[in-house]
Design brief:
This protein is α/β, with parallel strands linked by helices. It has 19 helices and eleven strands. It has two domains: 200 residues, D-Maltodextrin-Binding Protein, domain 2; 200 residues, 3-Layer(aba) Sandwich (D-Maltodextrin-Binding Protein, domain 2). α18 runs antiparallel to α19.
């Protein structure tokens, strides 16, 4: 499907006529300002935190949530449209990290006061701090952080002679293991953001970067794909695709499909987010998954690309941005500090399955009870690498998906170069996505 570029600069020109929505939400009629927090969909955890912070505010403000679309790209588009129209009703936003530079660059995010930045940066995992920073400054408040682990069936790992819990494993070892045991390797090969996540983690783990100079203007961006790191990533994805190591559904497999494969008769190893632990436990309670499968599940750090070299797992999650056009930015930052308190992050992890950005939250006994792999998640977040941080992230990510899909077509000798040329042409305005 051919579509036009959606760079934010184009939106700014086209959408300045959009009228601010919900502007009346900035006051409650009783003298108590109402702050609107635009959130990604979840299981109600952010709404409960809003209630908690409202109570703790003792009348200083009331925090209400408005839920954004489920799809991250749609969230980005809605916020960009409204911020381009200087919508003052946007006090707080739950932001997907890759879109933070795009909103920060045109001044859509209120600058974080120095004292607030100091407070919200303490005890934060490195991956989350990196994801909330643009051009050397903290521009969003780290809230919850996400990362992928290597999940494995203990019985399969044992049959393959691997013990990921005690010794790091490489992608090559995993590929050899599924061949030996006639199993499938659960990875995300769909033409979606999950594919960009996979590519980035492989390139970073191989010692490279998708973008060498992410802060540069579009015409000066330099891609790091046609490099040894990029070719190593292409070799792994291409091998898994061509040799059917990920199963026949690999070209359409997202995170949920990967979990289904992992739980099945040919499940073996899987890279995925921590939500899978809650999902498997829920399936056992519902009677749709045998307890023996859950008991057979182990976890470890994301696989290495090169043996002995530290892996750089995916980083995701949500950070908080304060709208630059809000009439209550001071109160919004107060609310943000409340939202990201260790107690609220612990609650959110335990109930919604979203890992904390604050390391203190991992000490909560309720957290370690609900997620026995919490220490591995924390370690993974310390090593995690954000996806390319650039205002042109949409062009880069969509360009990768166009040229690295399906996985069976990926060739280390050609794909990195083809991808580099295509994305460069898109950034220069010489090609359309």
């Amino acid at each position: 499907m051919v579509r036009r570029r959606t760079k934010l600069s184009a939106l700014l020109t086209a959408l300045v006529v959009v009228a601010p929505l919900g502007a009346c939400a900035s006051g409650s009629g009783s003298g108590e300002p109402t702050l609107m927090w635009y959130t990604n969909p979840d299981n109600g955890g952010q709404a409960e935190i809003a209630n908690r912070c409202t109570q703790q505010a003792n009348g200083a403000y009331r925090l209400e949530v408005s839920v954004l679309p489920r799809d991250a790209a749609s969230q980005r588009e809605q916020l960009a449209r409204r911020l381009a129209a200087k919508d003052s009703s946007i006090d707080l936003m739950s932001l997907d990290p890759p879109f933070i530079p795009e909103l920060s660059e045109p001044g859509f995010l209120a600058p974080i006061p120095a004292d607030v930045a100091t407070k919200v940066s303490q005890n934060i995992v490195k991956g989350a701090l990196a994801g909330a920073t643009w051009k050397g400054k903290l521009v969003a408040v780290p809230f919850w952080a996400n990362t992928q682990l290597l999940w494995y069936r203990k019985s399969v790992a044992q049959a393959a002679g691997l013990d990921p819990a005690t010794s790091p494993v490489t992608w090559q070892q995993l590929m050899d293991a599924v061949k030996k045991t006639d199993k499938f390797l659960a990875v995300q090969g769909a033409k979606a953001e999950s594919l960009t996540v996979w590519i980035n983690a492989l390139v970073e783990s191989a010692g490279g970067h998708i973008l060498e100079n992410p802060e540069a203007p579009a015409e000066q961006l330099k891609l790091g794909l046609d490099t040894p790191a990029g070719r190593a990533a292409a070799n792994i994805i291409g091998t898994i695709g061509r040799e059917n190591l990920g199963g026949p559904a690999l070209p359409t497999a997202d995170e949920n499909a990967s979990l289904t494969i992992f739980q099945g008769d040919r499940g073996s190893f899987m890279v995925n987010w921590p939500f899978v632990w809650s999902a498997m436990n829920a399936s056992v309670q519902a009677g749709s998954l045998s307890k023996s499968v859950l008991d057979d599940v182990g976890w470890a750090l994301y696989p290495q690309v090169n043996a002995g070299e530290q892996t750089r797992p995916p980083y995701g999650g949500i950070n908080l941005g304060v709208g630059a056009f809000s009439h209550h930015t001071d109160l919004a930052f107060q609310a943000a500090e409340c939202i990201v308190s260790p107690a609220n992050q612990s609650y959110y992890f335990e109930t919604n399955g979203n890992p904390p950005a604050n390391t203190l939250a991992y000490d909560d006994p309720a957290v370690t009870k609900a997620f026995p792999m919490a220490n591995v998640i924390e370690q993974s977040l310390e090593q995690a690498a954000p996806r390319p941080q650039t205002p042109y992230y949409n062009e880069v990510s969509s360009g990768l998906q166009e040229t690295w899909h399906p996985p069976s077509s990926v060739n280390p000798d050609t794909t990195p170069q083809t991808s580099t040329v295509f994305i460069t042409d898109v950034l220069h305005g010489n090609a359309l996505l």
